[in-house]
Design a protein that fits this description.
Length: 438
């Protein structure tokens, strides 16, 4: 019993620290943003940043104050304004959202009560909402996910709206386009973890996959520029039917934020032009561009199961890993995560981050489009609310795996599933390719 109690209080300490750390990150990201820019809708695809901020607080209130402690709403209007389903992103600027100071006060009041809820919670209880800290982990991960959404919004602001301090980068190399062979066999997809994993990652289940090849690295800017030079945007035959329709209507000829100049490409990062780095993974491509590149290269996109197998399965041990390198949490030696690098890293800088199959940079740098739509795993049960995953199941979305530089280490793992419309490019999305074995 003593051990259980100690485990409980150590876990509570960790949850409290992470709640505070997520909040500190939120405010750090928003600190350089003017009050006017915080309230403004910078792009129809994104919320005003102040909406994200208020929504972070309201989501915490709904779960850690109202649901967990049975308290009434601090202001019923907030539960409406910050309901993502009631108000699509493009309409959020016309809502009576709270300004910076009002948000600060609201979030602080909610947090005070939430921490009281944590102090009183029985993390060993039979209630699966609180057992092992599930609902607290959910709130922490929710704030991290909105941090990434805010980073996408910040990038869509006109200069001089946001000037990130970009840390020096380690020098990598130009990736070769090597592939590794994954022999036919079964692996365990998903997880049964009930403390941090989302409902859509569960349950763990066996999946058989025929032999396939997969790229050891995400597709580089260099390779992608070759695809463009070879007419990648002028050859509808490379695109799927849906991809052709996208190509015809989108009127684009490069990834989002690329700008042509006399002898090559620049990229617009946070409103400032930089030379395109050929050694970095390509980012800001939509699913259809990824699909077309793969066809051009004589390859295809991996399925979700192939991606997870290549990232997580240790065939010699017959065991699954939480991260490509093992079960240790991410560190800056192994993956480019954490939201403050403001871009992907060059190839080869994470030799210790590769998976047992030898795939690099599967976690961090860029989200990787995979050729699957969003379905629940066999035996899926929504928990704790249908609107996290279940309402998005179907063929409208495509999956993304592995997280990006803008993802927090606290909300990424081999089993984590992200999804978006296949036309979306403002997210930090790239891809790697796969191929059937002959
Ligand atoms: C998992 C990234 C698709 O942003 O719509 C945030 C995460 N869910 N608040 C989204 C989420 C509720 C979600 N994605
Ligand atoms: Fe949300």
């Amino acid at each position: 019993m003593a051990q259980l109690v100690e485990r409980g209080s150590a876990l509570k300490g960790r949850l409290r620290d992470q709640l505070e750390e997520a909040r500190a990150r939120t405010y750090r990201l928003l600190a350089p943003v003017s009050d006017a820019n915080l309230m403004k809708q910078h792009n129809v695809l994104m919320s005003p940043l102040a909406w994200d901020l208020g929504h972070i607080g309201n989501f915490e209130e709904l779960w850690l104050v109202q649901r967990l402690q049975g308290k009434g709403p601090s202001n019923p209007q907030y539960d409406d304004i910050y309901d993502a389903f009631e108000h699509p992103r493009r309409t959020r600027a016309s809502l009576p959202i709270l300004d910076r100071q009002q948000c600060r006060d609201y979030l602080a009041a909610v947090r005070e009560s939430a921490l009281q809820g944590l102090a009183n919670a029985d993390l060993d209880s039979d209630d699966e909402l609180v057992r092992d800290g599930f609902v607290f982990n959910m709130i922490i991960q929710h704030e991290y996910q909105h941090n990434e959404t805010m980073l996408a919004t910040l990038q869509l602001m006109d200069a001089p709206g946001y000037r990130p301090v970009i840390p020096p980068r380690r020098a990598g190399s130009l990736p070769n386009q090597d592939m590794v062979l994954v022999e036919a066999g079964s692996f365990i997809m998903g997880t049964d973890d009930r403390s941090a994993a989302y409902d859509n990652e569960r349950p763990a289940h066996e999946v058989f996959l025929p032999t396939f090849w997969i790229d050891t690295a995400p597709v580089s800017n260099a390779a992608y520029a070759e695809f463009i030079a070879d007419g990648g945007y002028r050859r509808p035959d490379l695109y799927s039917e849906a991809g052709k329709a996208w190509l015809a209507s989108a009127g684009v000829e490069a990834p989002q934020f690329w700008a042509p100049h006399a002898d090559g490409w620049s990229v617009n990062r946070y409103g400032y032009l930089q030379p395109l780095n050929p050694r970095e993974p390509v980012q800001h491509v939509c699913y259809y561009e990824a699909e077309a590149f793969a066809r051009w290269a004589g390859k295809r996109l991996p399925s979700e199961a192939e991606w997870e197998n290549a990232a997580s399965w240790d065939p010699r041990a017959g065991k699954k890993r939480l991260y490509p390198w093992g079960d240790d949490p991410p560190s800056s030696e192994r993956a480019n995560l954490d939201q403050l690098g403001f871009g992907p890293m060059e190839f080869g800088v994470y030799p210790d981050g590769s998976s047992p199959y030898g795939c690099h940079q599967m976690i961090g740098d860029v989200w990787e489009w995979v050729a699957s739509d969003f379905q629940g795993y066999p035996g899926f049960r929504f928990f704790p609310y249908r609107e996290y995953s279940e309402v998005f199941f179907g063929t409208e979305y495509r999956m993304l795996r592995g997280g990006s530089w803008a993802t927090s280490p606290g909300v990424i793992r081999n089993t984590f599933r992200n999804w978006d419309y296949p036309i979306r490019r403002q997210i930090f999305s790239g891809f790697r390719c796969a191929r059937d074995a002959e």
